Amino acid sequence: MTAVARSREVLRTYPWYVLGLLIAATTWELSSAALGAHRLPSIGQVAAQFLPLMTKSPTLSFQGGGDAGYLPHLVHTVLYTLGGAALGCSAGILVGLAMARYRLVRGIAEVPIELLRTIPPLAAIPFILIWIGPGNSSQLLMVGYYAFVMMVVTTLNAASNVEPLLPTFAATLGASGNRVFRTVVLPAMLPTIVGGIRVAIGIAWSVQVVAELMGGRYGMGKVFSAMVSFQALDAIIVGILWLALSAVVVDLLLVAAIRRLTRWMPN
């Protein structure tokens, strides 16, 4: 898709985006009026706290969350989400590629990977907390574990979806097995792999926040835990919105990188 065609597509869909936002905002306001502000704060109440809470929150400070507001906690969550996802995705892709390329590696690693895949990531969190203890290392391990297992499976699926005629045709032209894998199979796998990275990072946010809720001293999970104690729903919604905004920005940057990596593709 060319830049002009992409721009036209955005212009055609933009009104629907606006309509969706208006419907969501109207539903929010009507629900707030029906349930009461104590059960669902209005948009105005949340908007009034949206920026001030980033730099100062007396409630969070009282609960031991520091005097700098949400900002350092949001930065912590972003860094450890991306750090854990980067470590897990890198290791998962390497193991997946090795399993796809070498039968011996696949034979050794396939059963352990299948066993790990059957364990829900959130179910593994208590074990990791007991094993390592609450802290930054356990958070990295939790996010990395999820990303690793997901990317191993995604990489293997990408290899199995490669058109069989492509490597066969390259081999008939005299290319070695390693060269076929490097120049034919790997580029064909790339779109599926980078799509899997996007999904893994998207879910890694949830894993990171849950890890923080279960004993972290910093992060948005700590913020949510503190605000629940005071039933500060407007402050909780502000935290959710800032976390969602961060996730959207990261996803947009990732999509731009994916488009650059796969610019050779027709679409």
TrEMBL record:
<keyword id="KW-0472">Membrane</keyword>
<feature type="transmembrane region" description="Helical">
    <location>
        <begin position="78"/>
        <end position="102"/>
    </location>
</feature>
<protein>
    <submittedName>
        <fullName>ABC-type nitrate/sulfonate/bicarbonate transport system permease component</fullName>
    </submittedName>
</protein>
<keyword id="KW-1003">Cell membrane</keyword>
<keyword id="KW-0813">Transport</keyword>
<keyword id="KW-1133">Transmembrane helix</keyword>
<feature type="domain" description="ABC transmembrane type-1">
    <location>
        <begin position="74"/>
        <end position="254"/>
    </location>
</feature>
<feature type="transmembrane region" description="Helical">
    <location>
        <begin position="114"/>
        <end position="133"/>
    </location>
</feature>
<feature type="transmembrane region" description="Helical">
    <location>
        <begin position="180"/>
        <end position="205"/>
    </location>
</feature>
<dbReference type="GO" id="GO:0055085">
    <property type="term" value="P:transmembrane transport"/>
</dbReference>
<dbReference type="InterPro" id="IPR000515">
    <property type="entry name" value="MetI-like"/>
</dbReference>
<feature type="transmembrane region" description="Helical">
    <location>
        <begin position="139"/>
        <end position="159"/>
    </location>
</feature>
<keyword id="KW-0812">Transmembrane</keyword>
<dbReference type="GO" id="GO:0005886">
    <property type="term" value="C:plasma membrane"/>
</dbReference>
<dbReference type="InterPro" id="IPR035906">
    <property type="entry name" value="MetI-like_sf"/>
</dbReference>
<comment type="similarity">
    <text>Belongs to the binding-protein-dependent transport system permease family.</text>
</comment>
<dbReference type="Pfam" id="PF00528">
    <property type="entry name" value="BPD_transp_1"/>
</dbReference>
<feature type="transmembrane region" description="Helical">
    <location>
        <begin position="235"/>
        <end position="258"/>
    </location>
</feature>
<feature type="transmembrane region" description="Helical">
    <location>
        <begin position="16"/>
        <end position="37"/>
    </location>
</feature>
